[in-house]
What we know:
One of its GO terms (biological process) is DNA integration. By secondary structure, the chain is α/β, with parallel strands linked by helices.
Amino acid sequence: KFIPNYSKIALPLTNLTKDKVSFVWGEEEQKAFELLKNYLITEPCLHLPDFSRPFSILTDASKYSLGCVLVQEDESTGFHHPIAFASRKLGPSEISYATLEKECLTLVFAITHFKNYLYGAHFNVFSDQQCLSRVKTLKDPTSRIARWFLTLQQYDYTIIYKPGRLNFMADYLSRATYPADKQSDNTNSEEVHNVNAQFNVFNFFSIHELIEKQNKDPYCQNIKSKLNSNFVFSPKSPQFFIKDNLLLCKNNNMSGKHKLNTKLVVPQSLVPQILHLCHDIDAVAHPGLSRTMRRIQKNYFWRGQFRQVKNYIAFCHECIQRRGYVKHIKAPIQRIPTADFPFQKCAFDAVGPLVTSNHGNKWIIVISDYFTRYAEAYPVKNIQSSTVAHVLMDFISRHGLMQVLYSDRG
């Protein structure tokens, strides 16, 4: 689904996903949410490509950027349904190009970007510059334009003039703006609202019940009494503080992105419920020790946390059932049928572990198309299911959903 100027509309919502910004839902966030919902049920909606029908490209260039749209015409209505969008900013030297050179650059960018859909078949290119339709007949083109069209000689296309008022999709992409991120303060009152919102999500217990259980817990009582008497804690101990009678803390001796997160000090009477929420419910599906610890340490703190989490997972009935010995049986070698069109059948595999790169990557995920032999390689830090899913979503969002995906990693 394409949403015009999405980054600007969703800015209040994307700001809430930052690590050091508290989750506070206000009028601005609600307005952005409602506007995005309205866009999701209105045109334009992206269509899946139909390789039995010809493709077309809409192109346009502005002063600072260029844009293009891959479309297919509806035979009954004549409407060009968008298949994919692409745009980019012009470089410092490209901004000084003449208008004709910018339009030619857009043409080269569009065709090379969508080459997997266009190669080997005739397609039309629609532009709002009449001079672009006659550029092939120039008697003395500049070296830059001649070099570009030499690159495009392997493609079969026709350039058609389309007035700017009708070429609105590509024109909008070439003139899109990129607003700067907003900064948000992280106040103590927002921290308490953030902790309260976490429990409202689970419908577990109210903030007043939590304060009452903290007051009955010996460890929480001891910490509160020390805070009231201005006791000086060890530099390695968590930074405890009380806000609206609720005991919270920040960990100094932790490493990682959750180090400065505001955490709830959990009384021992509520530890079993927290362990159940972070390990047993269907939404998390019984993760291992490290993933469960990361999930708990993001929002909660109590004394003896690691030992209790380790024992809880060690005696989890569902986890014990899945730890049984699984005999690996090699599948017989089979002949794979050939593909009929691009991205009908793709192969997926992971290579590694290799020597760790400067960016921390030590695996390479490779996805290749059986029809065109086109391949893409993704350097990743691990091959966990979330990482693999992110790679597949990136590949499918740009090339469409394949009918068959071959892999030896079930």
